[in-house]
Amino acid sequence: MKKSITYFLFLIFFSIFFNLPAQQRPEPDPPKTRILFVFDASQSMEGYWESDKKISIARNLLIDIIDSLQHLDNIQMALRVYGHQSPIPPQDCTDTKLEVPFGKRNASKIRQKLRFISPKGTTPIAYSLEQSEYDFPECSDCRNIIILITDGIEACDGDPCEVSQELQRKGIALKPFVIGIGIDPGFKKTFECVGNYYNAAKEEKFEEILNVVISQALNATTAQVNLLDIDGNPTETNVNMTFYDKYSGKMKHNYVHTINHKGNPDTIILDPLITYRMKVHTIPPIEVDNIKLTPGKHTLIAADAPQGFLILKSKGGIQYRNLEFIVRKAGNMNTLNMQKINVKQKYIIGHYSIELPILPRIIIDSIEIKQSHTTTIEIPRPGIVTLLMSSPGYSSLYVKKGNKLEWIYNNNNNVTNESITLQPGKYRVVYRSLNTKRAIYTISKSFEINSGSSIAIELY
User: What integer is the mean pLDDT of 129-136?
Assistant: First the structure.
């Protein structure tokens, strides 16, 4: 039996790491996987199940699995047991203990502990799961997995489903595995909310299920993200995708989307035990929620991401060389992006508005971004006005719009000359010296700016 399990695990890892093309293989150092076995040693495990006592069958098969796993460098194991310390009656709903903590090469300790466990007490599943939170030492890149082996349902007042969900929300552990030993099929729903539930109705099924659970616990699986254009074809690419654990909110992966040499979206490696939320960092971003993967099955993940381009240009001159302008969704004041002038940027198709922080300020509404099309906006080359004053004073600039003046700028009242970059147009400057205390000494002059021109205005 031990030889068959070892060979089985070898095939799992061989298929993962060697059957993929080089560019599709996972990183050389996979994350550490920590498996906590939560083992039922309640009084009912003393009962017979076909060829032997339940405790003996479960113990022997689990020891075989542990023997096989101990040779894998990125695997650590621990053992928590419940129902083995206090006999019933009375009922002790705190009868649970971490018998062997996580550590390197601790399989012999787990084997030894399992061999001498004697079923005695009750079945505090919820409390055992709750205490398992403290069994996993702090680790930023570990996969924490709980495998619960039991022949009965919760016998105390706890709610295993609620505890399991809380462990997942906190990011303590991934969705647990639950292996039922000869449990009444009617209790299936009782355990499905706790984790991935498998019921070994027959003794011969127990080994098979245990192997399946271990393979899923260790196995990564492949996925492909199709970023769809407006025609539903997966042609969009070259954008970062962040994958979050839906329940804990923790970030798990960042992949820059790629179209491979065959023209197909590239294959990525994901953990099938996690339900993901994916954020595609387009502008604006796109989210796909509730992504579930089937272990060992290639999963297609689709996201509508039709995009086009926007570029804003200014002819000649260096005045706007480092200018950034604001991009917003049409009708929405939230800033989506600060885009550099003369640099092309991708956006999801739709209508946008832009605002240029220049003088006078320019706002352009209802700019349409179309699929694979570059929308080009051009603004004139600016000019420069230099204001010359005999002394510092109060002055402001206005742009002429018909018979009205529209304020655009208050000048620096601590200087005697100031150069200002302006768009082509007609303007008026209004000035009064700091030293004069009568409005009659106000100076007001009109001027015109042409593209590329430079003029000086004397205010005295």
Answer: 97
Strand 96-103 relative to strand 143-150, pairing:
unpaired
Instruction: Count how many residues are written for the chain.
Output: 460
- Domain of residue 65, CATH code: 3.40.50.410
Same domain as 150, residue 14: yes
Last residue of a domain, one of 186, 218, 250: 218
| Adjacent-strand bridge partners of 267 | 224
What range does the domain containing 288 cover?
221-304
Contact 121, 43 (CB under 8 A): yes
Q: Are residues 197 and 259 in the same domain?
A: no
Could you list the beta-strand ranges (E) of 350-439. 350-356, 362-369, 374-379, 383-389, 393-401, 404-410, 417-422, 425-433
What is the pLDDT at residue 30?
Answer: 67
Percent of the chain with pLDDT over 70: 93
CB 307 within 8 A of CB 371: yes
pTM of the model: 0.82
Whether 106 and 60 map to the same domain: the answer is yes
With contact defined as beta carbons under 8 Å apart, do 313 and 379 qualify? yes
Listed residues 218, 249, 270: the one ending a domain: 218
User: According to the model, what pLDDT value does residue 186 have?
Assistant: 82
Rounded Cα distance between 70 and 434, Å, is 85
CB atoms within 10 A of CB 4: 12
Q: Cβ distance 83 to 40 under 8 Å?
A: yes
Is the pLDDT reported for residue 109 higher than 50? yes
Query: Are 249 and 342 within one domain?
Result: no
Are 136 and 173 members of one domain?
A: yes
Query: Which CA distances in Å does 155 have to 41, 61, 73, 88, 127?
Result: 13, 25, 37, 12, 11
**For residue 15, pLDDT beyond 70:** no
Rounded to whole angstroms, the Cα distance separating 11 from 18 reads 10
Q: How far is CA 431 from CA 38, 398, 421, 456, in A?
A: 83, 12, 18, 15
Q: Tokens for 56, please give them.
A: 């003996």
3-class DSSP assignment, residue 327? strand
Please state whether 50 falls in left (phi above 0), alpha (psi between -120 and 50) or beta: left
pLDDT at 454 over 70: yes
Residue of higher predicted confidence among 373 and 10: 373
| Residues 81, 203 within the same domain | yes
| Total count of domains within the chain | 4
Whether 28 and 123 map to the same domain: the answer is yes
- The C-alpha angle with vertex 269 and arms to 148 and 64, in degrees rounded to 5, equals 35
CA distance 419 to 454: 10
Q: What's the DSSP call for residue 437?
A: -
Number of neighbouring beta carbons within 10 Å of residue 324 = 14
